[in-house]
Amino acid sequence: MKLPSRTRYGIKAILAIAKGYGNSPIQIKAIAEQEDISNKYLEQLTAMLKMAGLIRSMRGPRGGYMLAKPPSEIPIKDVFWALEGQMESVECMEHASHTSGCVDCATSLIWQELKDSIVGVMEKVTLADLLE
Question: Cα–Cα distance between 81 and 119 in angstroms, integer?
Answer without folding.
Answer: 10
